[in-house]
């Protein structure tokens, strides 16, 4: 089978990569040792998946995941801050004070390997970080106008037992949206406000305040030792989400994050900051807690990202229903919602 390749790491039909000079080659080729990015495209959706090394003129070291995501032709505006990334593997944590002297951004700093699994799927692998014995693999797969995301971790030893959970955190740094809030269907926690289901549009007043939102069927908040310093993890809000999806607007486009319900042994929370990517650049994030884990046994969770022209929030709901096979009970319209009421 013939494959066309070019300098910088072009994909072949087999999913392998070559470094070559605009030649036509026959057969398969080995992964390039210095490959740090992979370009994926389908229809008008274009993205770059990067490991945690710097590349190009802007993208900084330490930010892995989807470093570029845009609609349209080459040169279209990146929804993420070009210096940083979206779905960036940011933190591993346990809440135990013995870890507080460690660098909180160890997943950014420890080596990652980028593997092109196929023309539409890229995997990031990390054997562990300096202090956290967690082997991870993260899949980004372009599929039917969206990106399927899977995170899997294997604890190699138990240093999380004090509080009984493995915590991981992913950040998406949004480039200067006019509206920095996220939108989801939820309600207030019991005794903390309106218990009726409704569309909620939320933007914290400052970093770490009312920063994460738990699922509505949860009666649990994670425990931390005194001085725990991940503000977006410990900044509980008075809000709960009813369905595991949220969206935000960037110009005429919408970025939707939706998640498979993780079951009773784990919990996923929405998280956000008004300034995580710098002034005017919010962070639309999420936190995952694996509450039941076994050393040597893999655990995983699944999400999907859709970036498209905004056609109203009912379109967002339909996207989630089609992916999750779950019927959403739509709350009454919110007159303050931008459009698509």
Helix content: under 10%
- Strand order, main sheet: write it out: 8-13-21-20-16-17-14-15
Over all CA atoms, what is the radius of gyration?
Answer: 20 Å
Low-confidence stretches: 1-33, 335-341
Number of strands: 22
Distance between the termini: 51 Å
Count of individual helical segments: 3
**Secondary-structure element sequence?**
EEEEEEEEHEEEEEEEEHEEEEEEH
Q: Major β-sheet, in short? A: 8 strands, mixed
Average residue-wise pLDDT: 88
The computed structural class is mainly beta
The gross shape turns out to be: globular
Q: How much of the sequence is in beta strands? A: 35-45%
Task: Describe the 3D structure.
The structure is a single chain. The chain is mainly beta and 341 residues long. 6% of the residues lie in helices and 40% in strands. The protein contains three helices and 22 strands. Strands 8-13-21-20-16-17-14-15 form an eight-stranded mixed beta sheet. A seven-stranded antiparallel beta sheet has the order 9-10-11-12-22-19-18, covered by helices on one side. The N and C termini lie far apart (51 Å).
Give a topology summary.
Elements: E1 2-5, E2 10-11, E3 17-18, E4 23-26, E5 37-42, E6 45-50, E7 65-71, E8 88-93, H1 106-109, E9 113-116, E10 121-126, E11 134-143, E12 146-155, E13 166-171, E14 182-188, E15 198-202, E16 212-215, H2 231-234, E17 236-241, E18 245-250, E19 253-259, E20 266-273, E21 283-290, E22 299-309, H3 313-324
Parallel strand pairs: 16-17
Antiparallel strand pairs: 1-4, 2-3, 5-6, 6-7, 8-13, 9-10, 10-11, 11-12, 12-22, 13-21, 14-15, 14-17, 16-20, 18-19, 19-22, 20-21
